[in-house]
């Protein structure tokens, strides 16, 4: 074997190209395309095969940015293989484009990294599946708007007709059709001769070419074409593909386009522009106010469902009526109410109780959440929102079966939602501190980073059709896709806005409601929530304040950051909570009582005070200050809860910065004096009162007819209604009865908190296989390398070789034992077939160390460790060749 190094040969397949990569490059491939590692391939050949499957290639193409997709599309219409110079010409054109020249190496490196392109710069190859997906055909036009080559379009033409075209184009006749097509192709690829040919073309013929040049390249012609069309057909500038259909050959279109495959290459992502700038302190304060409102709204929602919320629909979710009631209770529009309901559900604070008559209620985690500091409670909500795949914006829409999507119901998961939310906030973090973005610029940037399906590449086909009309007859250029009206399928903007754009719009509005942003700009605690670096300093010292000042911000784009690990997410949430805590208002321990039976809370109240005040009074208005109103009903509610008049007087005196108004004191005393004067018990129900005059008044009242009352004694009335109905009826008549127990004690009526059993928050729906961590990548690459070594190691010819190198070696037990023992003595490595206890077969390369007791101990190159194998599980052995060059 020669020790002189041989130059590395060009790879002949994707598997060979992968075999030449180092571990870092393989790890980058598996990280960017995690579907390739599920399950771990046995060797690099299987990895290459899996990387070329249609599903995997489609998924990889969908995750490319616009210019990388345009690069792949250009390779699909280039020769196979193509050189780097040819690819650059297709993207930059004959005149060259410095931006394209600068961006192409990175785009090509991305395609190589993701195993969509292989080969060096002299032999670039697009993987076969990607070429099939992106190459033009009548059924699936290319997003470039290009048609077939001359050779492809002329495949069904007669040799005589081809010779006629060659002669009309001014070329000498050839001896066969193949050479004639080659001569015609050479003519169309020659800029000078092509220009001379077009200079002789009638103006009307050039007009036809202009309509077809940017695609779609197909058109309809009649049996008797007009002279301007006949001139083009005679010279091969239009070629027939089917009766009544012509196509503009790819070579002709490229000459007319100046060599460009795309009308508008987009090598540079559009910048995110700032619509307005605010002082960072204003942004943080506004976001903190929104964050506190978010906490109050979630608490109000779950307090409204304290005794059990709405029933669960049979198909799951909230009914439209219950969502409307919730929206009224929260004083928000229905879409906003759906967002708060879904947020509480995503945070694990709300769930169904799972009982026979299933309904929604707070979970035990809600009680723990309420006891946490406000900043930590907000961090839990914000983290749940950021990671949730359930999308509240879809509520009220229709699913694939035309069923209405309901809040908390099925069908709301969108796996792309977390990535879009995180990316939107990251783009906001790239603006100067305090800058709010132009929404359309954010959407344009996201569309460049992940082009919508069918609209990839921005080929810009334009109308591409027009008409080459001939009197009333002629040709109309159209795509070869059904109605022949578009190129590349559905284009963004042709119909409903694509999902990622809608997700981005919802992310911006939801971040504002949640307090992640303030006045549209990312807050300091919002920046910490996504783990973003410190903000950039604004370019100017003075920043205009107000939405009318347009500040276009042009900065070099950064690639999307990798998603945070669970540990990093927890750290980021804790940091966000720490930054938010000083911005939240401190809870107050007092209110301001007023003479009109109201109390004003000038800020958030401490929890015991707020809980007691919510029982004693009704909320009249909210805002910066909350106004509570005292009514006979609210005071009675407090008395029913076990408070006495003295307790209420003491409570108000202790927590009011103003003296207790006399009307409020009179109201409490008056309601307390009448409270419990009547007693209702269970007989079916009865009323007793020491004052028989009061009972006479009740009996005489016409409103009591429905209660079925009759006197049993001077101080006792029996009723046909139950205790609850009797209490309600007497209260409607203006009395203040109290319920009593069988022993005659007053029953304290406290609302029972309804809780679900312990529930975990809903798991986000993954967007494909999870990205492998470093530990898994290291183990997988080691296994792939070892399996590849076992399958490709040179072997000596002999009994161990099967007809196919993929088969396991087969030898008898005696041959196996003898070969292994010999390898122990010589220190040689062996190729073995092995079947484990589960019956899984594998190939391995081992270096035997010793053989005893029916076991062989060897260094396993596959696992990179010493292992022991039972001899009876080895299917066969083969010696490796001494020459591995």
UniProtKB/TrEMBL annotation:
Keywords: ATP-binding, Helicase, Hydrolase, Nucleotide-binding. The keyword DNA repair does not apply. Residues 591-713 form the Helicase XPB/Ssl2 N-terminal domain. Residues 454-492 have a biased composition (Gly residues). Residues 815-877 form the WYL domain. InterPro entries: WYL_dom, XPB/Ssl2_N. Pfam families: Helicase_C_3, WYL. The keyword Hydrolase applies. This is Helicase-associated domain-containing protein. It comes from Streptomyces virens.
